[in-house]
Each structure stands twice: as structure tokens, then as C-alpha cells.
Design goal:
There is one protein chain. By secondary structure, the protein is of the alpha+beta class. The chain has a domain at 744-848: Macroglobulin (MG2) domain (Immunoglobulin-like, Sandwich), CATH 2.60.40.1930. The protein contains 26 helices and 38 strands. A six-stranded mixed β-sheet has the order 4-11-3-10-8-9. It has a five-stranded mixed β-sheet with strand order 2-14-1-29-28, with helices on both faces. Strands 18-17-23-25-24 form a five-stranded mixed β-sheet, covered by helices on one side.
Length: 849
């Protein structure tokens, strides 16, 4: 699945354009601490391209299909498909190379065991995972190094925390992270001890057969295990099932495809007890240079994931507070931000709603005739830019056959709260545009439909600019205008102003002014032929609030906690001009990069988290939801016993079509108390008729503004076709400058022996992929850590530049005096400026008296 999921996109998550064998002998080796070295396959770098006059996408069409990942390499070699976008695990890299295929590599996909934390309705059935200490103990029961070596051929990174092991936030708190990795290292005896204590306290008894019983029946865990995808979840699940049995649980395995398991772990009420744990997988929806929201997203009941299981978790109040503070930007300095991360990490391990196993380096193979862009933190499938740059080298037009794993239509597509699967996102990304485009190397953003941004931050806040399209200024105080919209009244269907809600005035930490081009509403069209309008933006603003309000006709209790969290840091929004469109946003949620303040907090583009949509599509979906015939979200659909809204197939289409006809007849202006300022009755009818013509022609309601449009979809066959949008205003080569990411390798050199009490000097060389020195001016810092024979961090230092791409790492004599005889290790991380993937390296030595 995508890492992030929410109806409330402003300031809470980046939805620019966050996924889902028999046990061998146990090992006690320390977890790997550096990424595998990857030798590139046949080059697939960017090629010189002459200027083009083509608009839309490079291709005439892209044909999407589902195949078994195990056959991907063979099918590409045979010409049956051209690209496998999902990505394969590191254990398939040698096969990709042997087949002489090109490939992209990326980080951003990670696996874990996700627990159902709910108290079951049946009082005779015990769910041990309601107990946080039992969940925490599962960390000691998982040998991550065994999983890495035996399942991923040593090509993954053992993962203990929610922070991505190869990204910047992890590097910033690496001393804390490494300490936790040492504390939670594989220790089955400790796990069993905790389980015994807690299960007894819960009222369970251990039978003579070594199995736990509760009220006379075995404590049985229903373990949902994915047997599709890249094929690695099945052996992970089977391994962990045996580990669970070793501490007395009875385990029932449900080994099925994602489409069969999703209705259970996502769609069912967790209190029904249909499942106990699941082999989860998540993928970032782009390179994430700021992971501070990850704790709220992956653990807390106000998670923006929109999945009922999260609302059932009861975290430590301290964890709830620190997770929300991070997500809502409640810090004023980088040190305060770091301190919050340091507090959150151990609390996350103590909660362990999810027990992480590995961070993957994934490889997406493709025919070398293609030119493919990939995000270094998310790969091909989840990066916004990939469909924009996908082409046949040296050719305009043509068709590409893109295949993925069997998750393309696992869940219904709807833009408000629909499918969160990466395979769906890959198709959807090509059908949409947006205010900003994520940079696939740095995680920053570039203007897409937006023209510029002006950011004002409160004096003293740690905000900086990196790119010249955004201006940054400071102010001692930022007052929110009295007429700014700060909240929503679902009864009157009007926005509440700052003056109405806070007569004494409101201030904000940051003010973002986003200006759109003067001709945007003339040039940008929805696929149904309608021109983009101010009303599309206002509808997105309304939908940020309305579903979470109890007085709303479309109220959804699953999103209400997230709205409550959002309102703690949202300070207001104004449309200060409609020609050109200028939107000013006030917030206490501040990013260190002004580019992210603009793109995450300030855009208000009609992108609802899971796809773009014109206001008329949202309107008919709201009518169906309000009349309890459909529901935007899975939890509400389950509670109301109705269909989860789908814009592309199934029973939803007839219901949506019915309400479309009704909207035409009634000349419906949704939320008329507000939107009638931006829509006339005649304009509303014209919009509905355009959507009706689109539905008649295409058989679905998926309506975007991207370079491709959804031409056809076959849910039964698991296939879709997108075709070039000739009315698209941009040239096909707009994003072609993004080719191969400037990643680096690092190597340590130094003494094989360190004497206690004596200074030790090591050297690290940072190089490009071709072996040339990496420019020192492009290296932000080299941070290093020293470990003792127990794997504990004893010193954190910073390297000193000593030449182009080289740094000297000095261990002071007073630090060396605290070492004890035995094994030792030094680890270095080079933090790069052009790309947000640090280069890691480590070296072992002997500590001698």
C-alpha cells in the first residue's frame, strides 16, 4: 500500500505527485548496518532528446496489466510486457542482470507485521495484541537478520523503526536508532518471558502442551499472509508463524492474494476478530525528506490512513502527544524537532502496532528500449513523474505494456478515500497533474500548475529555501485576517471565519501565498472537456472539513480524529484573487524547506488524496454517500452495509449515474451556501452534462487533468488502458531533465587495531557511481558513530574534509580510553545535497589494550 492515506491532505501528508518458508537455524549475528552495493545493469540513463512539439504524454497509450512477479523477468524477455513497475526484491537482482534487462533501483518499500489491536466483541475470544507489551515483545521474537539473509539474499536492510533506514531523518538520529536496534535485537527468551507474564495477567493459562488457553479454548491467532507481490511476504509470514507457535500461540494461516485479504484487514470491523495480524507492506509515494508525520500515520488513532484498525489502537498518552506534536509541527527549532524524534522512537517500539522487518532496495526491470524515470525513495510505481517521462527511446508515440503485481484493483478507486495501493497510484498518476511536482531525487517540489510561492515564516523558525521559485521572508508576528476561513459549519454549509471563531485574533507560524498562472483556467481542462475553475479548489477546501463534522450528511467517524488533529495547526485560508488565482494559507505546521511549506501546506489543488476530481464528481459521490447508498471510506461502507464507492466499476456506477441525472434535473449546486458564489445553476448543469457525456463514452467516472486519460478498464481481467490527452497544455518533454539520480558510494579505510587511550584516525572516500570523487561541495556532512563490542554507540562525531570527496574521521584519545578490549566498529554516513539518500559505510577493527 501507499504509506499515507487521508481525506485531509492539507499539511498532514504529502499527496504529490505511503506498500502494502520453514524457519532455519536461528542466528545471533548483529543486523547489517550498510546498504548492499549494487552494480548497475546495462545503462538506462537519459539520452539526448531533440525539442518536441508533442503535448501530453510521450506515448500514444500505456497498457497496464497484472502478472505474477515470479514471471516478470521471463515475460519482459519474451516481449509480453515491457516494464514491471512494482519492483522485485534483491534476491532477483542476479536474474535481472542475467536476462540483460535494464532496471531502476530505489528505497522506500518496507515490510512489517501489522497487528489487530482491537478488543474483540466476543468476550470468550482473547486478542493478545491489545496488550502493548506483548506487541513490543514481538520485536525480540523476530530475527531480522535471518529474514534479510535467507529471504532477501542479504540485499535488504533490517528495519526496527518507522524511519526509513536510508533517508535523512534516520541519519539525524542514528545514535538513538542504533541503540534501539541493539536493545531490540533477536532474543526469543526475552520475548517468551514477556509473553508469559502478560498472557497470565490477561487471564490465559499455559496448558501441558505448551499452548495458551483462554476460557477453555486455545488462543488462536488468524494470520493473514500475502502470497503474491514480490513473493517475499509468504516466507516472512511462515517464519513468524513458527516463532509465534514457539511462545505458545496457536496460529491459523490464511495465505491469499491482496484482493482476498484486503476486505478483511482493511474492510472489516477490527472488533469482529476476523484477523489477528497481517504481513503488511508499505511504499512511500515519493522521496520523503521529512518523515516526522510517520508516527501519527503508522500507529495513532488519529492516523490519516483512514483504516479502521488504527482507530482501535490505544497508545501511551505520551506517544500520542509526541506523535501529534511532530505531525503538527509543534516545534520552533531543528533541535526541538530532533528531540521529539528521539522521544518518539522508543515509544514507537514500545507500542509496536507494527513490527518492522526490512527496508528494501527494490528493482524494477524493463526492456532497454524504454526510458524510465524513477524516484530514488519510491521507485517507478509510486513516483508522480514516472508516467510523464515513460517513453520509447528516440521515438514519439507508440505503446508500452506495463505490468504490476495483483493489486491494481484490490480496492475501489475513488478520489476521496479509495484505493491506497501503489499499483493503482501508478495508473492514476498519469491521469492527473497538480499544483506541484515532487523532485524524485531530493524530495523537494517544483511548480507544476502553480507559478510561484511566497512564504513568510515567524522569525527564528528553522525554514530555508533551496530553489528559486519560492521566496522566503520572516516576520516577528503573522496575524491571520479576520475574514480568513478557519473552520467549517456543516449545518449552514458555510466556512467559519477567524473573526467569528476567535474574536481576539489569531496568529500563525507560517504564511504561504501560492500564485497560479493568469491563463490556467483557460488552458487546463478536465478530461470531460470542462475547464478547471475556482469552484474545483473550493470544493477541495470544503471536503477537507465536511466528512469529519458530525453535523455533515457525509460524516465519517474514521476521519474525524484526523480532522481534530488537523485543526490544531491549521490557522486559515483565503482566496485573495480569482484572476489570477491566489490562495493564502496560514498554519502552525511548518516544514524546514520552504518548498514543502508551499507544496504540502499551501496548494489546495483539487487532489483529494487518491486522485484528482472535478467538483461535479465529488458532488454526485456525496449525494450517494449522504443517502447511504455508497460510502467514500471502507469503514463507513462496512458499518452501513453499502458499497465502498468506486468511480471505475461495479454497482457504484449505476448509483452514481442515478445521482448524476438527479443533479442535472435539480440543477444542483453542492454546498450552495458557499459554492453558489463560484457556480451558477447553468454552469452546474453544463458540468454535469460534460461528466455524463464522459461516462457514456468511457463507462467510468475517473476524470482528471493529466497527460493521459483512462480510456478503458477491465476489473475482471485486471487491466487498464490510458491514452494520450491531446488537449493537455504542456509539452511532453517538460520533465525530461530528470534522468539518473546522482547517488554516491562510500568506503572507509583505517587501522585494523585501535589502542585503548590512543587517538585513532579513519578516512572515508565518497565517490560517484563511476568511481570519480563526489564533489565535496555537494556533501552536506559526514557523520560517524563508534560502537563497542556490545553494539552500543559510544561516540558520535563529524568528519573533516581532507580532499575532494574525502573526509577524516578522528576518534579522540579520551573517547578511546573508554573502550574495552574486543571487537569494535565505526560507521559513517555521507549526507548528500543533490539527492536525499545518504551513502553508508562501516569498518570493523579490534580494540587492544
Amino acid at each position: 500500500m501507499l504509506q499515507k492515506r487521508s481525506m485531509l491532505v492539507l499539511g498532514l501528508l504529502v499527496v504529490m505527485g505511503l506498500v502494502l518458508s520453514a524457519c532455519g537455524a536461528a542466528t545471533t549475528e548483529a543486523p547489517a548496518t550498510s546498504a548492499p552495493v549494487v552494480t548497475e545493469a546495462p545503462t538506462a540513463g537519459p539520452t539526448a532528446v531533440p525539442p518536441t512539439t508533442r503535448t501530453g504524454g510521450w506515448l500514444d497509450e500505456i497498457d497496464y496489466s497484472q502478472i505474477d512477479a515470479q514471471s516478470a523477468i521471463t515475460q519482459i524477455g519474451a516481449g509480453a510486457v515491457d516494464l514491471f513497475s512494482y519492483g522485485l526484491a534483491s534476491n532477483k537482482l542476479a536474474d535481472i542482470k542475467s536476462a540483460n534487462l535494464c532496471y531502476s533501483s530505489s528505497y522506500g518499500l518496507y515490510y512489517d507485521f501489522l497487528f489487530n489491536p482491537a478488543v474483540f466483541k466476543d468476550a470468550n475470544v482473547l486478542n493478545p495484541f491489545t496488550d502493548r507489551k506483548i506487541r513490543e515483545a514481538m520485536n525480540w521474537l523476530v530475527d531480522r537478520n535471518y529474514i534479510n539473509q535467507e529471504i532477501f539474499a542479504g540485499g535488504a536492510l533490517p528495519k526496527f523503526t518507522p524511519l526509513t533506514t536510508q533517508l535523512v531523518d534516520y541519519t539525524n538520529v542514528i545514535d538513538t536508532a542504533r541503540g534501539l536496534e541493539s536493545y531490540y535485537a533477536y532474543n526469543p527468551d526475552k520475548a517468551k518471558e514477556v509473553v508469559n507474564t502478560e498472557m497470565t495477567a490477561l487471564g490465559a493459562t499455559l496448558g501441558a502442551d505448551g499452548k495458551w488457553q483462554y476460557k477453555g479454548k486455545p488462543v488462536t491467532l488468524t494470520f493473514l499472509i500475502r502470497n503474491d507481490g514480490d513473493g517475499t511476504r509468504l516466507p516472512q509470514g511462515e517464519y513468524f508463524a513458527k516463532q509465534l507457535e514457539s511462545v505458545g500461540f496457536t496460529v491459523t494461516l490464511e495465505e491469499k492474494k491482496s484482493s482476498e485479504l484486503s476486505p478483511i484487514w482493511i474492510g472489516s470491523d477490527p472488533t469482529e476478530g476476523q484477523w489477528s495480524l497481517y504481513t503488511a507492506g508499505w511504499a512511500s509515494n515519493g522521496l520523503n525528506r521529512d518523515e516526522r508525520t510517520i508516527f501519527q500515520e503508522m500507529y495513532l488513532p488519529d492516523s490519516p490512513q483512514g483504516i479502521p484498525l488504527f482507530t482501535q489502537n490505544v497508545p501511551d498518552p505520551a506517544f500520542q502527544q509526541v506523535g501529534d506534536d511532530l505531525a503538527n509541527g509543534k516545534f520552533t527549532t531543528l533541535q526541538e524537532r530532533r528531540d521529539l524524534l528521539v522521544k518518539a522512537l522508543p515509544l514507537a517500539l514500545q507500542d509496536s502496532l507494527q513490527v518492522w522487518t526490512v527496508d528494501l532496495q527494490s528493482f524494477s526491470p524493463y526492456n532497454c528500449k524504454l526510458q524510465v524515470s524513477a524516484d530514488v525513495g519510491a521507485g517507478v510505481e509510486t513516483t508522480k513523474m514516472a508516467p510523464f517521462n515513460l517513453r520509447i527511446k528516440g521515438q514519439e508515440g507508440g505503446a508500452v505494456k506495463s505490468a504490476t503485481t495483483a493489486t491494481l484493483f484490490t480496492d475501489p478507486w475513488n478520489p476521496v478515500n479509495g484505493s491506497n495501493w501503489v499499483s493503482s497510484a501508478f495508473v492514476q498518476n498519469g491521469t492527473s497533474s497538480g499544483a506541484f511536482m515532487p523532485d524524485p531525487y531530493t524530495g523537494l517540489s517544483w511548480p507544476f500548475r502553480a507559478e510561484k510561492a511566497d512564504v513568510t515564516a515567524q522569525t527564528g523558525l528553522p525554514v530555508a529555501t533551496n530553489l528559486n521559485w519560492v521566496t522566503l521572508s520572516t516576520a516577528d508576528k503573522i496575524d491571520v485576517p479576520a475574514d480568513a476561513w478557519v473552520d467549517w459549519d456543516a449545518k449552514t454549509q458555510k466556512f467559519i471565519t477567524a473573526g467569528e471563531k476567535s474574536p481576539n485574533g489569531v496568529t500563525a507560524k507560517v504564511k504561504i501565498v501560492v500564485t497560479y498562472p493568469a491563463d490556467m483556467f483557460q488552458k487546463v481542462k478536465w478530461h470531460d472537456g470542462s475547464n478547471l475553475s475556482v469552484a474545483d479548489f473550493v470544493m477541495q477546501m470544503i471536503m477537507t472539513f465536511d466528512p469529519g463534522k458530525k453535523d455533515s450528511a457525509i460524516y465519517d467517524e474514521d476521519v474525524a480524529p484526523n480532522l481534530d488533529a488537523f485543526l490544531t495547526q491549521f490557522k486559515g485560508v483565503q482566496i485573495t484573487s480569482t484572476d489570477p488565482l491566489v490562495i493564502t494559507t496560514y498554519s502552525d505546521n511548518v516544514y524546514a524547506d520552504a518548498e514543502l511549506d508551499a507544496s504540502v501546506v499551501g496548494s489546495w489543488w483539487p487532489q483529494y488524496g487518491y486522485g484528482e476530481a472535478p467538483w461535479q464528481s465529488i458532488a454526485i459521490g456525496n449525494l450517494a454517500d449522504a443517502n447511504k447508498e455508497l460510502a467514500w471510506g471502507t469503514g463507513k461502507a462496512d458499518r452501513n452495509k453499502v458499497e465502498w464507492t468506486s468511480f471505475i466499476g461495479g454497482p457504484s456506477l449505476a448509483i452514481l449515474s442515478k445521482y448524476l441525472d438527479q443533479a442535472v434535473t435539480d440543477k444542483t449546486i453542492p454546498y450552495s451556501a458557499t459554492l453558489s458564489q463560484y457556480i451558477t445553476a447553468d454552469e452546474a448543469v453544463a458540468r454535469y452534462n460534460a461528466l455524463k457525456a464522459w461516462y457514456t463514452a468511457r463507462g467510468h467516472f475517473w476524470d482528471g487533468t493529466g497527460p493521459y486519460y483512462l480510456a478503458s478498464v477491465d476489473l475482471n481481467a485486471g487491466s487498464a488502458v490510458v491514452k494520450n490527452n491531446s488537449a493537455y497544455p504542456d509539452l511532453a518533454d517538460r520533465w525530461s531533465a530528470f534522468g539518473e539520480a546522482p547517488l554516491a558510494n562510500a568506503a572507509l579505510d583505517g587501522p585494523a587495531q585501535v589502542k585503548i587511550g590512543s587517538e585513532a584516525v579513519f578516512n572515508v572516500a565518497v565517490t560517484k557511481k563511476n568511481g570519480d570523487p563526489y564533489p565535496s561541495s555537494d556533501i552536506k556532512q559526514v557523520k560517524f558513530l563508534l560502537y563497542n563490542d556490545k553494539g552500543e554507540t559510544v561516540y558520535v562525531g563529524e568528519g573533516v574534509p581532507s580532499g575532494e570527496g574525502t573526509f577524516t574521521l578522528t576518534v579522540p584519545a579520551d573517547v578511546a580510553s573508554k573502550l574495552t578490549a574486543g571487537a569494535g566498529r565505526i560507521e559513517a554516513a555521507a549526507v548528500l545535497i543533490p539527492v536525499a539518500i545518504p551513502a553508508f559505510t562501516s569498518l570493523e577493527y579490534v580494540v587492544a589494550p
